[in-house]
Amino acid sequence: MPRRRPPRPGALADLAPLRILTQIAFLQLIYYVVACVLITFITFVAGQQPSLDRIFNWHELRGDVTTGWTLGLCWVLDALVCVIPILLLIARSKLVPDFALTIHFVNLLTTSVYTRSIPTSIYWWLVQLCSAALMTSVGIWACQWRELQPMAFGGKSSKGKQRAEAANGHAVGPAEVADEEAGYEMGGGRGGGRDGAGTYEMVGMAPRGTG
C-alpha cells in the first residue's frame, strides 16, 4: 500500500478554513456581547429602555445628539476591548488586519439586514472607521509585543538551577551566587563559557628576535 504523505506543518495548519471560521464567529460574538453590555449600561444610566435598535440600527448613531456620541464612544471602547481576544486567539500580527476588517464587515452586513438599508450616515461610517483603525493598530502592537518576548532555546536558568540544587540538599556557595549575573548557561563542561562560545586562555608570546 502506498504510504500517505504527512501533512505540511506550519501555515496550512494555522490557516485551516474551519479554524478561521471558528475564530471569526467567536470574535464576532465577543464583539456584540461587549457592545450589548456597554450600550445597555449607558442606556440604563440615561434612564431609557434598552433595545436592539441601539445596537443594530444605524439611525441611532447620530452626531447631532448626545445619545449618538455616547453610542459612538461605546463602539470605540468595544473595539479596544476586542484586542484582548484577538491577542489570545490570533497572536499573529500579520493576521490582525484581516480579522479586524472582517469583524466590521460582518457588522455592516448585520446592520444592513436589520434596517433593510445600507448605512448612509457619515457619522456612522466615521465611527466604524475609527473603530477598525483602533482595533487594527492596537491589535498589531499587542501581537508584536507578544512575538518579541524573549524565549529560552535549550538554555537553563542559573537561578532555577540553584533552586533545584538547594531543594536536593546541595549548598549554594558564594561563587555560584555570583554566577547568577551570567543569566543563562549555554552548555557545560569543557569549552562551555558563560557566553556560550567556550573558555579562553591567555598564551604567552615569545619575544621576537632582533634582525
From TrEMBL:
GO terms for cellular component: cytosol; Golgi membrane; trans-Golgi network. Its main location: Golgi. It is found in: Golgi apparatus membrane. It is a multi-pass membrane protein. Keywords: Golgi apparatus, Membrane, Protein transport, Transmembrane, Transmembrane helix, Transport. Pfam families: SYS1. It comes from the Eukaryota. The keyword Membrane applies. This is Protein SYS1. Residues 183-211 are annotated as: Disordered. The chain crosses the membrane at residues 29-47, 67-91, 122-143. GO terms for biological process: Golgi to endosome transport; Golgi to plasma membrane protein transport; protein localization to Golgi apparatus. It comes from Recurvomyces mirabilis. InterPro entries: Integral_membrane_SYS1-rel (IPR019185). Belongs to the SYS1 family. Signal peptide: none annotated. Residues 185-196 have a biased composition (Gly residues).
